[in-house]
Design a protein that fits this description.
By secondary structure, this protein is α+β, with helices and mostly antiparallel strands. Helices cover 27% and strands 22% of the residues. The two termini are 52 Å apart.
C-alpha cells in the first residue's frame, strides 16, 4: 500500500487489547461522532455503580456526616480536574455547571464590560453557544479566521502593555482551541497576545482591558490543555466530551485574577451566608465557587467524573497519546478520501479544512466533507447518513452547531443562508440540498477507543456505495493549492504569482429534480384503480394484505399501527434499531377478533383484538413517544412480552396498544388539522404508492443491484394503498383523491431514509433503491405521497379495484 494511505498505529498491542475489553458492546456499531459525545467504557460504569453502592452520599448542604463526606469528595474531584489541566486551586477556580453552553451563558450574563462598555470579539468559527453571548454585550464583532491568523500571528508580544486597571472598559475575546466543525486547532499563544492588546487595532480602541474565553470543549476531548503554560481567563468544558459519562455536567474554570469580572446578581440556595425574606438583603459566600453554584449540585454526577479519569489511567493512556491516536486516524481517512476518484477521473469528495493533516499541532481528529457524484453534483448529506446508518456507522451531518464555520467552508453568502431558510431548511433537519448545493456537510470524529476497523468501515461504505467503479486513486488537481493555502494560513508563507487560491468546486446550476410534472391543473377524471390494501398492525413489523376490502376509521385503516413494541427504556423499537421486526408477520381474523403473530422458527402467538377491561386499562397504562408526540397505551401483558423478547433476542420488550380517542386520555391529532386523528404512524394516516412509479424505479436501478419482483420492491416502501396509475409519478400531481366517494387529501411527498434498503421479506440489507432515488432526484429522496382524510368517528369501507379520481388542486 502507498505509505500516504497507510494508517500509522499509535497504541501498543496491549493498549488495544485493554480498550477492546471495555467496549464489547460496540460489536456491529461503528461510532464516529466523538466530537458530539465520546463513549463510556463498561468497566467505568461498573466502577461508578460500585462506588455508589458502597458509599452513602447526600446533599452537601445538609451539614451532617454523610453530607460532609460528599462535600469533601466533590472537592477532591475539583483538585483532580485542576491537576489534569496542570494547575491548582491557587490559580483557577472550578465552578460546576451543566455544560459548556451553561458556562458560556454564565460568562455572558455576568461579565462586566465596564462603565465605558468594551467589546465582545468572537472568532468566525465559534460554536452556536458563543454566538448567543452577543445578546448580553453592548458591542460585539466577528473576526474572520484569516484576519485573526494574520493579526495575532504577526503581533509582537513585547511591543505593548498588558492589561491595566486604568481604564473603565473591559473587552472579551472568545475563540475555540479546536474548531468542532473542521478540527482546526488555533494557536494558544493568542491568549497572551490578545491580553496584551493585539486586537486593539481591530476594534479601533487603545484603552480597554482584554480578557480571553477559551472554548475548550472540543479540544480537551482528545488533547492535553496545559493551564500552567497558557492562561486564559475563562475555560468552559464538558466532561461527557472526555469520558462519555456523566452527561449534564460541565465546568467553568476561572482564573483567580479575573474573578472580579463576573458580577453575579442572582443567588440561590447554598450561595449565601445570610438572606432576609422581608427585605432584599443578602450576604454572599466568600469563595467564587460557592457564590456561583446555585442550589444543590448534581453531586452524584460530579463524583462520577473521578471514574472517567481513572478509566484513562487504567487503560494506560494519557491525552497526549490520545491526541496522536485520533490525529493518525483522521489523517488516514482524510488522505484516503482525498485520493478517491470516480472511474471518469472526477473527485469523490470536497473536504472542508484549513490544514492538509500534516501537523498534529494544527489539526485534530475531525474530518469534514461532502460527497460528489461522477458528474460533479453534490450528494446530500441525508443520503450519506441513511447509508451510514444502514451499515451501522454513526456520523454527524448538517452544520454541527457551528454556523460560521459551515458558511465559511461551504462558501455560503449571507443571502445563501437566508435563501436556504426560506426554502425550509433549519438547523438540525434533513433538508440537505437547495438548488443542488449543500446546506451542510458530513462530519466524522474520533475518540480514544476508535479503531482502524471503524475508519475502514466508513471508507469501504463510501467506496462501495458512492463511487463509480473502478475507483481511481490519485492526488487531486487542487492538491498544490490546498498545501499553499494551509502554509499561508498557518505558517505565514507567501503565495507566488501562480499559486492563487482556487475554488475546489462551484455551485451547480442543474435543475433540482426530474421536471416532468410541470403541467396545468387537472380536471376531475379517473386516473387509476386501487390494487392493494396493506395494514401494519404493529408499528415497524410486517404487513397484512387485505383480500377484498377493509374498514377505514377516523385514524386510518382499522388496526393499522395500533400497537408498538418498546424497549427496556420505553422507547419505540423500529427497524432502524432491529431490522428483524419486518420478519414478524401479522394476520388479522376479523371474525374471531384475533391478531396472530408469525415468525419463522417460533410458535405463533395470538393476541385478542378486543380492548382491555376498564380495570386492566388503569393497571397497564404506559407512555412512550412517536415522532415527538407523547403516546399513551395499554401494556399487552407478560406473555406477548416474553414472545417478542425471545423472538427478537432482545430482553425487556413490551407491546403497547394505543389508547382509543373516546377515552379521557388524549390521542394524536394531525398537525394543522381540526379533527383528523392519527394512529402510531409517523406522518400521516395513509401512504400511497403508484406501481407505475415502482416500475420506473426498477428500470433505473443498475442490473443485478436489486434482483426482486415488483411486489417485493413495493413492500420496501411500506405503503397502505398501492394504486395503478397510467404514468409514473402521476400521484404527485394532485392535491387529493376520491376513492369511490371517499375523499383523501394529499399531505405531501414521503421523504425516504435507509429503511427502504431493508428487504421486508428476508431482512437483508442492500444499498438500493436508496442510491438510485438519490441519483435520479438529485438528493431529494422522496417516493410516494402521504394522505389524510376526516370522516369523524364513522367507519366506512374501501375496496380493492375501486376507481380513483384525481382532485383538481395540484401539489406544489
Amino acid at each position: 500500500m502507498d505509505p500516504f494511505l497507510k494508517f500509522s498505529a499509535v497504541y501498543s498491542t496491549n493498549q488495544e487489547t485493554l480498550i477492546a475489553q471495555e467496549f464489547g458492546r460496540l460489536k456491529g456499531t461503528y461510532y464516529l461522532d466523538h466530537a458530539g459525545a465520546t463513549l463510556y467504557s463498561e468497566q467505568q460504569l461498573q466502577n461508578i455503580l460500585q462506588d455508589l453502592s458502597k458509599n452513602v452520599y447526600s446533599n452537601p448542604h445538609a451539614n451532617n456526616v454523610t453530607s460532609k463526606f460528599t462535600e469533601d469528595a466533590i472537592d477532591i474531584v475539583r483538585y483532580r480536574i485542576l491537576e489534569h489541566f496542570n494547575t491548582s486551586n491557587e490559580e483557577y477556580t472550578v465552578i460546576f455547571v451543566s455544560s459548556t453552553t451553561a458556562a458560556l451563558k454564565t460568562i455572558a450574563e455576568y461579565f462586566d464590560y465596564g462603565k465605558k462598555a468594551g467589546t465582545l470579539v468572537h472568532l468566525e468559527n465559534n460554536h452556536t453557544s458563543v454566538l448567543g453571548m452577543r445578546n448580553y454585550a453592548t458591542n460585539s464583532s466577528e473576526i474572520k479566521t484569516e484576519q485573526a491568523m494574520y493579526t495575532l500571528s504577526c503581533y509582537d508580544n513585547g511591543s505593548t502593555h498588558s492589561n491595566s486597571a486604568n481604564t473603565d472598559s473591559n473587552s472579551l475575546f472568545v475563540f475555540p482551541a479546536q474548531c468542532n466543525f473542521s478540527g482546526s486547532k488555533y494557536p494558544l499563544s493568542w491568549i497572551d497576545k490578545v491580553k496584551n492588546g493585539a486586537l486593539n487595532s481591530f476594534i479601533k480602541e487603545k484603552s480597554t482591558n482584554w480578557y480571553v474565553v477559551l472554548d475548550a470543549a472540543s479540544y480537551i476531548s482528545t488533547n492535553n490543555l496545559d493551564l500552567n503554560k497558557y492562561k486564559p481567563d475563562f475555560v468552559p468544558i464538558s466532561f461527557y466530551k472526555m469520558f462519555g459519562y456523566p452527561t449534564g455536567i460541565g465546568a467553568l474554570l476561572v482564573k483567580k485574577t479575573s474573578e472580579n469580572l463576573l458580577v453575579k446578581k442572582y443567588f440561590g440556595g447554598g450561595t449565601i451566608f445570610m438572606a432576609l425574606s422581608s427585605k432584599n438583603v443578602m450576604v454572599p459566600r466568600s469563595s467564587m465557587q460557592e457564590r456561583f453554584e446555585d442550589g444543590t449540585l448534581p453531586f452524584l454526577s460530579i463524583l462520577a467524573i473521578k471514574h472517567g479519569f481513572d478509566t484513562i489511567n487504567r487503560l494506560n493512556l494519557n491525552f497526549d497519546l490520545i491526541s496522536q491516536h485520533t490525529f493518525s486516524l483522521a489523517q488516514y481517512v482524510y488522505r484516503n478520501l482525498l485520493l478517491m476518484h470516480h472511474s471518469n477521473g472526477n473527485p469523490v469528495v470536497v473536504l472542508y479544512h484549513d490544514t492538509v493533516f500534516s501537523n498534529r499541532d494544527h489539526q485534530g481528529g475531525i474530518v469534514n466533507f461532502n460527497l460528489l457524484r461522477p458528474n460533479g453534483d453534490f450528494i446530500g448529506y441525508s443520503e450519506v447518513s441513511h447509508m451510514s446508518n444502514l451499515h451501522g456507522i454513526q456520523i454527524r451531518t448538517g452544520c454541527s452547531c457551528n454556523p460560521g464555520a459551515c458558511q465559511r467552508f461551504l462558501k455560503l453568502s449571507t443571502d445563501d443562508v437566508k435563501k436556504h431558510f426560506d426554502a425550509g431548511h433549519v438547523c438540525g433537519d434533513q433538508h440537505d440540498l437547495v438548488d443542488n448545493y449543500p446546506t451542510g456537510s458530513v462530519r466524522i470524529s474520533f475518540g480514544y477507543m476508535t479503531t482502524q476497523e471503524d475508519a475502514d468501515k466508513l471508507l469501504n461504505m463510501i467506496e462501495n456505495c458512492f463511487i463509480s467503479q473502478p475507483v481511481i486513486r490519485k492526488l487531486p488537481r487542487t492538491w498544490h493549492n490546498m498545501q499553499t493555502a494551509y502554509e499561508k494560513l498557518y505558517l505565514g508563507k507567501s503565495e507566488t504569482e501562480n499559486e492563487t487560491e482556487t475554488k475546489i468546486l462551484s455551485k451547480s446550476n442543474l435543475s433540482a429534480c426530474i421536471s416532468n410534472h410541470n403541467t396545468d391543473c387537472y380536471k376531475e377524471a379517473p386516473v387509476g384503480k386501487l390494487q392493494q390494501i396493506l395494514v401494519y398492525p404493529i408499528k415497524s413489523c410486517g404487513a397484512f394484505s387485505a383480500e377484498n376490502n377493509w374498514i377505514i376509521t377516523s385514524k386510518g385503516l382499522k388496526y393499522d399501527r395500533e400497537w408498538m413494541i418498546t424497549g427496556p427504556t420505553g422507547v419505540c423499537l423500529t427497524q432502524k434499531h432491529n431490522k428483524n421486526l419486518c420478519l414478524i408477520k401479522p394476520t388479522i381474523d376479523l371474525k374471531e377478533k384475533i391478531l396472530k403473530l408469525k415468525f419463522k422458527g417460533q410458535p405463533d402467538f395470538e393476541l385478542n383484538l378486543m380492548e382491555p377491561s376498564n380495570q386492566e386499562k388503569k393497571a397497564y397504562l404506559c407512555q412512550s413517544k412517536v415522532c415527538g408526540d407523547r403516546i399513551q397505551g395499554w401494556d399487552c401483558g407478560d406473555e406477548v412480552s416474553d414472545w417478542l423478547s425471545e423472538t427478537l433476542r432482545t430482553p425487556g420488550l413490551r407491546l403497547l396498544h394505543q389508547c382509543h380517542f373516546d377515552e379521557e386520555i388524549s390521542g394524536r391529532i394531525l398537525k394543522n388539522e381540526t379533527s383528523s386523528q392519527l394512529s402510531l404512524a409517523n406522518k400521516a394516516q395513509y401512504l400511497l404508492i403508484n406501481s407505475k412509479s415502482v416500475e420506473w424505479l426498477m428500470q433505473k436501478i443498475p442490473e443485478n443491484e436489486l434482483i426482486e419482483d415488483k411486489y417485493s420492491v413495493i413492500q420496501r416502501f411500506r405503503p397502505n394503498l398501492v394504486v395503478n396509475f397510467s404514468q409514473p409519478f402521476q400521484e404527485n400531481k394532485y392535491g387529493g383523491f376520491l376513492f369511490n366517494d371517499i375523499p383523501f387529501q394529499s399531505a405531501g411527498k414521503c421523504t425516504r431514509c435507509q429503511m427502504i434498503c431493508i428487504n421486508q421479506s428476508s431482512g437483508e440489507i442492500s444499498k438500493e433503491p436508496l442510491l438510485t432515488l438519490s441519483r435520479e432526484f438529485k438528493g431529494k429522496i422522496a417516493f410516494g405521497v402521504y394522505l389524510n382524510q376526516d370522516i369523524a368517528n364513522e367507519e366506512r369501507m374501501i375496496s380493492i379495484g375501486c376507481s380513483i379520481i384525481g382532485k383538481t388542486t395540484e401539489m406544489s
